[in-house]
Amino acid sequence: MDEKFNRIPVSVIHLDKDGTVIDVEDYNLDKVEPASWALKGLAAALLPVIREFYTHEDNVRAFGAWLKDRESKPQQQGKQKCAQRRKSEM
Question: What is the C-alpha to C-alpha distance for residues 76 and 14, in angstroms, rounded to an integer?
Fold first, then answer.
């Protein structure tokens, strides 16, 4: 399938009629190598927001609950399903 996209990194996201992600297919993402300056710029932009988020106890609790729920239902996560399918195809 990599040849289908001429080695260009692509994610195909399947949505249901309500706009909910039902599946994700990733192709050639192993070939993506962002430049160091791009990674540093992204980190500089995100770090203040992440720090602010974690200063509020309500956010920490809500994130913990979300993470626990997500980990208890791995089959419902599109990327996890795709990763499992890819492993089985190898």
Answer: 14
